[in-house]
Fold:
Amino acid sequence: MRHWSVFFGLVFAIALGTFVYAPFDNDWWLPNYWATHRQYEAPMTATAAALRNLATTQEGIVTEAEGAKTTQDTNSDRLAGLTRREREIVERVGPHRVTAADLASRNVLTGRTRTAAKASSEGLASAERAIEALGKEDLEGALPHLQAARVSLNEAASALELGLDEARRPSSSIARDVDHLFVVIFLITGVVFVGTHVALIYATWRFRARPGHKAVHSHGNLALEVVWTLIPAAILIFLGLYQVGVWARIKFHSALPSTPPLAKVTGRQFQWIIRYAGPDKQTGTADDVLAVNELHVVKDEPTVIELESQDVLHSFFVPQVRIKQDAVPGLTIPVWFDVDKAGQYELICAELCGWGHNTMLAKLVVHETRADFDEWLRSAQAARDQDRVPNQVAAGSEGATQP
Amino acid sequence: MKSRSRLLLVLAALVVCGCGEMLETHFAIPYSRSPDWEGLLGEKPNLQAKVAQEVDKRFGSDVNTIKVPPGSGLRDEGLHLAARARLDEKADGPAQRLVYRDQEGRLLDQVGGHAIYQRNCLHCHGATGDGLGVTAPFLFPRPRDFRRGIYKFTSTGTGSRPTRDDLRKTIRHGLDQTSMPAYAALLTPAEIEQVIDYVQFLGLRGEFEHRLIQEAKDLADEDPDALEADIIEEDLQFLVNTWKEASERVVKPDTSRTPSSPESIARGRELFLGKTKEQLQCAACHGTRGRGDGATWIDLETFNHYVLGLDVSRERFKKLGEIAKSKNKKWGDDWGDPVRPANLSKGHYKGGERPIDLFWRIRNGIGQELMPAHSNLSSAQVWDLVNFVLALPYEPNLLAEGPAQPAPSTVAGR
Structure:
């Protein structure tokens, strides 16, 4: 081929396009919270926007009411107009409050969605009180309620907007550190990649075959070779030193939080068996609670688990939390991580462990508060200690939706 | 050049077929007669054809014609077995696509038990539910054969079929210490219900086929119609009823569980060791220390040599069976597959670790011959045994040689 530079240029353009595009694709580049909650992003975005919109409308009502108060223009038509507009607000807030409460009950960004549900209910209550006062032609009395409704609606909208913003960011302190390293390495390799390709394309174009130009044999250039050996070496040493702190924080035994292990997680072909320490806070005793493929933890609390394998190598991997640790037969490996967003994540096996490796998928459920977790643990304990024939209705509800 | 064009052809075929919509079945696996039963009617082709015809008439021959006989007791008359169904028998044209609403209120296409089973279960349990899937030879314990009407971990008494709850529990949570995975996190509740339907379908269909083969075995091949219609109908009705009755045959303890206490555990220990007048033989299989090494079973070394060795043919089981027979030891289960008595010192229970599960295991037995049912015990006695079994992993001294140690109170706390 005569025009190698064209070929290299095309490859480079495609690669560069990929590099440039990657940071803008959340799921492809760095999996974020939405990767496991994708279906809730749309309703949350819509609800946030709608609530913000309603808060603006409410602002207009408040301004009008304040204007009416200062001009002492309180004829019944004007009040009726205000009432009508406020009623519309009440009607339109209702469904969004339900959506927010529904998201909270599904453990989606629970803190934010709970706040949104609570604030929108308060907003509704204030609006209804304002309508009541307006009905009595008491503008003076209605005004604080109208203002309160505006504050509550804004609060609800803000909570959801903050949640949406939060969901796009890493889900744990480990994730932040790891992502930082990822970006640093990405930038360094990006610069090197672009630099070497520009040089390559330039060289293939500049020294292409031309009539009248004879090829020259070159034995090399010592200075150049020293430079391109030393620069990668320097980068390697820099990265080695730069990342060691993060590695130590995540993996060193000395960095383990002093909390007692929450559970013993045992990998076996092909599932995760999880033994929660019961009331005595120790695993391997008679009051353990056993669960299959369900790891429950508490938000913002550093969690320690003991990782074991019963048969072959498995790997404990929660992509959103950026924690990955091999489970090695015969070893008990303590692993710690924290998650700062309540919800449900995927816990997968990242070490090919046999024919059913793909089915080794568990869920990591992050509870908003310790009380939520304790409640779940109690229910799991009750299920484990079940010593009578399960009541048909309760058992049926386990497989709830009948198609 | 020839090989290249062949490769192109394969590639083109892949492009045409596409790889999307993984759950949709692109090809139908017909319910062929199971390989292990072919020998039974091998010399009677007419009867063989007759049996196949009678089974296909009632259950369909592949996914496109899948159905259940009317009044089968299957949920919604088998409407959840496939992605499509012909709701109106008389209507022409393709079958209708079925949809349902999930918990989120979204309208979803029904995948159907057949397709979900094909993807998740078939490679072990086999297309007809015969437990002879391609991965089966590598597994221990071997996957369940649904066609025999024998199920190990049921809440119902011996000889009964499992309830939907039993099947749901097994599919959702898997079977601890076996190759049966837990599907609770992998399938949606609606999909699990569809799989339950399909397992019941395969069970009913397989048992029906088995019965017809048994009926046909002694008939002359020249006259296949000697397999009379009313005998066939009677067989089918009998099987349908056994499945329908399952939910009524759940064994309920007469008394609620005795709280675990050192006294209860000690009573359970006496029962386990056969020191009571019931003279239970638990230790004969589970061992005097509860480690699954009882004297009536073939020694572990021989067992492992044949079961876990490199040879995966079924011949090895025959050899093991012969050795076991010559030594007068047990080695396998109702299906002729190798199995070991449970090691009770580990705290792993295949059929579930809830006290009620252990109650059912002891009271109902496992399979038909493997672990005997203990209906001669009172509920209180079974609960004592349950308490003892639950305490054993945490207090191995309970079955130590020499005088028994008193159970410490921490164990009784559970």
User: Anything to note?
Assistant: Confidence is low (pLDDT under 50) at residues 392-403 of chain A. Residues 174 and 322 of chain A are 7 Å apart (CA to CA).
